[in-house]
Structure formats: structure tokens, C-alpha cells
Amino acid sequence: MNIKSYVNLYELLALNPSTREENRAFGLTHVMLKNKPIEQLLAWVEKHQGRLKKPLLSDTFSSYLYRVTFTLVVIAFVLGLVSGVALLSYHGHEPVNVIYFMAVAVFLPLLTMLLTFFAMLRASSAENVLIHLSPAFWMEKILGFLPGKVQEQIKGLKINPLLANWIIIKRSQIIVLFFSLGLLLALLGVIVTKDIAFAWSTTLHISPEVFHGFLHTIAFPWREFAPSAVPSLELIEQSQYFRLGDKLDEEMIAHASQLGEWWKFLACSTLFYAIFLRFWIFIFAAFGFSSAIKKSLLTLKGTSKLLREINEPIISTHANKSEKVFVSGEGNYSQIVNTLDASYDGIQGWAIPYDELLVLGEWLKIIAPVHYEVGGSNSLEEDTEIVFKSHGEILLFVKAWEPPTMDFVDYLNELTAKVDKVIVVPIGTVENHYDTTDKEIDVWENKLSMLGDRKVWLKRSSAKALSGEAQNAES
Amino acid sequence: MPSRREVDFVYPKFAVVGHPNKGKSSIVSALALDDSVQISDTPGTTTKKRSFPLTVDGKVLYELFDTPGFQRARKVLAWLEKHDVPANKKHEVVQAFIDTHKEDKRFNDEIELLEPIMDGAGIIYVVDGSQPYGEEYETEMEILRWTGQPSMALINHIDETDYSEEWKRALEHYFKMVRTFNPMQTNFEQHRSILESMAQLKEEWIAPLKASIKLFKQYQEQMLERSASLIARLVYESVSTVVKLPFYTHKVSEEEREKIESNYKDRLRELEVTTQKHIEKIWNHDHLQKEEKVLTFEGMDLFSEETASVFGLTRKELLITGVTSGAVTGAGIDLLFAGHTLLLGGAIGALVGGTGAYFGFNELSEVKVLGQTMGKRYLEMGPMENRNFPYILLGRAMYHTMKVAQTSHAKREVFDIEMDQTFKEKWLDDTSRKSLEKYHKKFRSGSALKAEELKEYEAIIKRILKHLIDA
């Protein structure tokens, strides 16, 4: 797992290359990865990587990172080399003060490692000043500003701040490591090519005994197996110097050959503090970086949805086919009856019992010689017989709330073949005093307009109107 | 070896049948959680049977069929009754009817509804309990009895009037189980209860339907989790959103300030609308028509800030860069003098670099190199500093999700999402506010969000949502 995996996943999530079903199928075929989200994501990326546009953004980005890092590493190495040479510059007039070299090879690494440690602790913060202090951060910003094709390509790529911080932390360690290597090389080079008289000098009142104790502590990692790389008290006493008088101590000149012994201590200090410890910090940063990639993979937009799709069973309740529906036109029936006559040749009720028909006739003051219940529990033969007996104008009551079925249509067709006129009267329930709603009447009007039979008429008025008609008939 | 058709027979099937326009499709829509079913006041809208299988990873647990209503029931029964057969042969007559009339358009609806029944589906006979019972229904029930399949009746309450009792008395003559069901007010408990009743129709259906009930519970959990996840993302993105508008003049005009404010508000509204759409999809309410007030920003002071960058570095970053590079340069001078400068070079370098970067930021941003300005100036708005905003957004999202989750899939009218004033008190107590505030603070800070933190935030939202939906 590396930065490429992150960028590939970032791109693939934006591309959304697979359906929910495909993702679930992936989950089912990779059961051994269940409960291992990172492994699942990586395997998913591997599966769909082929769908990404070439050259891969991940390749472009990682090679950009590599090039920037390489440039910075070369600069740091040269800087380390130059710094080492500068720190060890010796013209024979006065010895080289080891404290300067120690400042760069021991104290500066310890300080920067401490800062790195704090930077690691606060790596999740987007505005991390400690990260901003790193040359790797601003050098990249400046390089990023320079015009170039790569910059254009990676402009849109949004890296998680945690990951971006860890990239800088890790990269800073490599850069500083190479600076230290440059420093060590400079030390070894200068030692080989020059005779250097090292000494130590400070304004502070530090006795050689105290300084010896201090150096003894610094040399704790190697003092047991390389005692010659720890300056002795005698050497420390001999190499202390003061610039006052611009003249070297006679004692120092007498032991000039011994003053060079310091190099072993300086080399070991550089090796341990600037290189060995830095290397471990780098390893630590590499782990942190790897963990940041894992965390960042999980925080990418779309990751949790993808993991859900991979791991959760697809529960579906939907129809597997789209629906074919019958769309009826808006009925606008022209054969509408507004008022009923006082008598008809017959009153019939579709699924309305005989007794109720009598009550209805009474209530509406409509006289008819015959009343028949049709449809409902009648057999087809019974209905045919009623049709056979029917003639003239028929008033056909229907339950307004029951939509007209084809059974009704068949009967109506039979009836109209025999009689002169059929007036369909939708009525409401007894509880509603036979009142109907406009919606119910519309359903009937629609159906009748679809039939288009010249003999069929529709009584389109509510029960209130019907009852008004009844009262008029009475008066 | 059993054929595929025989293997498929293992899972239970149910055909929802009845008179036209009695709410069969509403019931199917509610039970299948599918709002795409055509529901209309016009009878005969459904002309073909339609299958609604409950599947888990493609495996069918049960299948529900929406069917057209009976159209020529008396003619069908007359045909059946012409065949004088003992009870154990009656289903064969029904099958013979289907085979004989398969191409007869007159019986299209009857064939469509009888086919799944003869294929082994249990019968769910739907009647409208708000309208009086009529004898004509007996013909339909008699046909269903001829099929010999296990059956139950559902009394559908379409409106307020109640004729359930007279329906029950009639239906009990024909069906071993009669239940009432209002598809417009269905909830998980009601749904479960109907599935339990369906399971009772046949012994071998008990296990798959119990599994289905369990699955529906899991499904609801999934929907809750996914909604909570989307809401958490919405709040996080809305609070942390930063909108930038580059400008090229010395002073920002009022128009530019208005523009960035409008862009910022539009962005937040767009995030909310997108999330709502996704949540509706999660709850299978893709066709929901709703009326809702847009997100407003009343009483929120939205400030736009002028910012700039040089080499892509902000003023702060350039300041640190200046200090560091100054210090490095100074330290180089110190080295050249072999430390005789007492590291003053580094200190002075840092001071000069820092001061220069701070005060020279604006000038530097206008310097042109190879025809390109080194700096960019822009207006910036966000992240949202108003502490109440996340709660307003959360409240709206919770209310919307609660309404969507509680709405039956059989509803087709326009849905009014008007949050009442008491809702805030209902969902946000002091404990919840305290636990949510911790995350809102983090969202505002712009710090990288850990996956676990977002998960914790989601869990709080899910807990509140569950409480609201179940209440």
C-alpha cells in the first residue's frame, strides 16, 4: 500500500466505475477480506484500476513527489557537505571549535527530532505550524507554483491534510538524513585531506571536568565499545583555548597531534545523533505515513458508501419489470341527462337489491311497471332473461362507488341491443343519502364515453339534486 | 434433478387480488416499499400482473404479485360451474380455464390474476372497508375458492367510513384469516404483523417469512445507518465548506461580496438538496413530491474575507517560510564566520525574513514573472462560524428523514415538509447537544477528520433518528 493506492481510490470513487450489484458481488467473491476494510478497498482498486485514464494520476503524482524529493535530497546533501566543510575550515592559525560542529551534528538534530515528534502528534491538524516550518513544505509550494504540465494535472487532486502532513514529515526526514550524510562525508573528507587541530572554547565558566562529564554523557551509546571515540579528560584539558591574545597556548602546540583525536568523537556523534536516530525517526515516519494512508483511505468521500455496498446484503423489494398501465382519456360525455322523467318502462339496479330499487323509485317519485336487480348475485341466464323482457326507456341504477367492470359493460351492450334508451344513474350509499362524489361520477362518465353508445345516457347530478327533483315532482 | 422452476417454488408467493380500484396496488406499494407502483382513482390502471420479489443478494425470500381486478367474474364462475367435479379436482378446472382462454382478450385480467395463484401463490384478497359489502363480491370469492390455494382477506381502509364489521362477517365464510390494513399509515410493526399473518397460510411458509421479517428489520437498520451517514457528511461538508472568488482589482466591490455570499449560500443549499434526494432514494421514495422551505441564513452574520497567496502560500505560510529561510541564510553567514558572529546571523536573518514576508506580502503578490502574477487575491467565505447553523441543518435533515421514513409508499399526494416549532425540543436535548458540539467544533477547525470520529458522529445521529422514527 502506498500513495498510489490512495490516489487510485480517490480517482475511482470520483469515476464511480461499478454498480451497487457489482460491488456486492465483489464482496461475496472476496469473503476472506470481510471485516478487513483496507484490504477490501485495495483489492477493489486493483480490480477497477484498468478503467482509469492513462497515464494514471497516481503515477504522475508519485513521480512528481519522487522528483521533488530527489531534488530536495540533492540540495540537502550538497548543503550538508558545504556546511561540514565550512564548519571544519582550518587555516592553521587557530583550532576548529568542536562546539559548532556539535551544534549541527548533535543539538540541531535533537531539536528538529523533537519538533518532528510534536509535528507527528499534531499531524491531523491542517494548519500545523511545525509542518509549515519544514523546508520540504515550502519548497514544494514554490515548485508547485512553477508552470508545468504535471502541476496542471495534479492541481485538482485533494489530499487529505493528515496524509499531506505525513508526506512532509516523512520527506523531511529523508532530506535531513541526506544533509547529515553530507555532513559526515565532509567530516571524513576533511579529516583525510587535512590535519585539523580541534579545540573547544566557550565564554561560559565551564571547567574541563564538567565538559568531560557532559561529553561522556553524549557518548553513552558508543563509549563502551569504542572508548577511543570519547575524549579523555586530558585531551579536553589540552584542547581548551581562549582567543584572548590571538596566540595559541604552548601546551596546545606541544600536543598538536593529539588534538586531531576529536574527529572520532565528532564522527560517532554525527553517526549516532544525526544519522542513526534520524534513520529511526524516518522509519517511524514511514509507519506513520502508512497508517495515515490507511486512515485517509477510510475518510475519502465515497469510501464508507463503497464499503457498505461491498459488505451489506442487497435487500430489494422492487418490481423487476416496469409497469404497463392503462391510461384512460378524460371523459367528456355528451349524453348527459339533467332531470329524470316521472316514469320509465323499467327500473333496473346493477347489483342493487329489488327492495332497494322500490325505495329508490318511491323516493324519486318515478313510476315504472317493472323493477329488476341485475348483475350481482344473478346468474348470466337470469340477466339475459331480464334483457329479453326489457323495452323502451330503462333507468339503470348503479353503485357509484363501485367502478364499472366489463361484466357491467357486457350487460349494458346486451341491454342497449334490445331497448331504445338506457339512463345510467350512479347513486351513493344509503348512509350518505345516496349522495355521490364528483370523482365517482367522473369514473362512470369516463367509462361510458369510452363505450360511445348512442343509446346510453348518464344522469350526472348528486343525490341532493336528485332529492330536489323528487320534491319538484311531488309539488 | 429438479428443474429451475421447481427450485423457485420453494419460496412463498402471494397474489394480491380483488375487485377493481379497491387498493390492491396501494397495499402492494406499502408492503413492497415501492413508490413506483401506479396508484390511481381510475379503475383498471393495472392491466398486467407485476412481481415484487423480496430478495437478498439475488435470492428470493418471497414474491408478491400486484394483479388487475376481476372484470368478468360471473362469466368465469359460470364456466367453472359447468364442470361438475369433486373438490379435489376444482383447481384443475381453474387451470383448464386459464389454458382455454389464454388468448381470449375478454379474460385477460382474470388470466393475469389467476396465473400466479395457480403457480402456487397464496391469495391476499383485498376489499375496501370504507364501502358497503355487496353480494357481487361473492362471485370473486367463489372463484378463488375453486383454486384451492391458501388465502386471507385484507380489509383496506381507504377513507373514514367503516364497514369493516359487515365485511368481516362475509369474508370469514370464504377465508381462514381476515385482517385489516391501512396502506397509508403502514409502519414496521404493521408490516411485520401482516407478514406474520401471511406466514400462517401454509406451514412451509413460516420459516421464509420469519426470515423476511428479520431481513426487513435489518433493511430498516441499513436505511437508518445510510441516512445517518449522509446527514453526518452533509453537516461536515456544509460547516467546513469554503468558497473562493478571485478578484483582480485593488478593492473588492459590493457586487463581488454579494456574489460570493450568494455562491456560498447556493453551495450549502445544493448540498442539502442532494442529501435529501439520496435519503429519499435510500427509503425507496424516489418519486416523492414535496413542498419545503429552502434553507435560510437569517440572523447569521456571514463574513467574506480578503485573502491572497504568493507562490500558493498564504500570508501565514509565507511568514513562516520567510523566517525559516532568513534563519537558514543567517546561519550560513554564521558558518562562514566560523561562529564568530555568535549566531546573530541566524537571528537577524529570521527577523528580516519574517518582517519582509509579512509586510511585503501584498507587493510581492502583484509582481509579475514571465507575464504571470506571483500572487493571487481572492475573497473567501467559510467555514461556517455560526454555532447554531449545524443544529439548524441537522434539525432539518432529521425532520426530513423522519418524515420520509414514516411515509407510506402508497402515498401519492404532494408531501408538505413544514417543521413545527416543537420539533427542535423533541430531538435536541442537552446531552445530545453536548456530544454533537464536540464534532461541530472540529468541523469548523478544518482539521483532518478521522474515519472513527465521523463514525462516532454518525452513531449519535443514528441514535437520534431511530428514537424519532420509532416514537
What descriptive keywords fit this protein?
heterodimer, A: 475 residues, alpha/beta, six-stranded parallel sheet, 20 helices, 9 strands, rod-shaped, B: 471 residues, six-stranded mixed sheet, three-stranded antiparallel sheet, elongated
User: What's the number of extended β-strand segments of chain B?
Assistant: 13
CA-based gyration radius of chain A: 50 Å
What is the approximate shape of chain A?
rod-shaped
Cα-atom Rg of chain B, whole angstroms? 34 Å
Topology:
The complex is a heterodimer of chains A (475) and B (471).
Chain A: H1 3-15, H2 20-29, H3 37-48, H4 57-87, E1 96-97, H5 98-121, H6 129-132, H7 135-145, H8 149-154, H9 161-193, E2 198-199, H10 208-218, H11 233-239, H12 250-254, H13 256-259, H14 262-299, H15 303-311, E3 315-316, E4 336-337, E5 346-350, H16 354-364, E6 371-374, H17 380-389, E7 393-399, H18 406-416, E8 421-427, H19 438-451, E9 456-459, H20 463-474
Chain B: H1 4-8, E1 13-18, H2 24-31, E2 50-56, E3 59-66, H3 73-81, H4 90-101, H5 108-118, E4 122-128, H6 137-147, E5 151-156, H7 164-171, E6 178-181, H8 188-199, H9 206-240, E7 243-246, H10 254-282, E8 290-292, E9 304-310, H11 315-336, H12 344-359, H13 361-366, E10 368-369, E11 372-373, E12 375-381, H14 389-406, E13 415-417, H15 422-427, H16 430-445, H17 451-470
Parallel strand pairs in B: 1-3, 1-4, 4-5, 5-6, 8-13
Antiparallel strand pairs in B: 2-3, 7-12, 9-12, 10-11
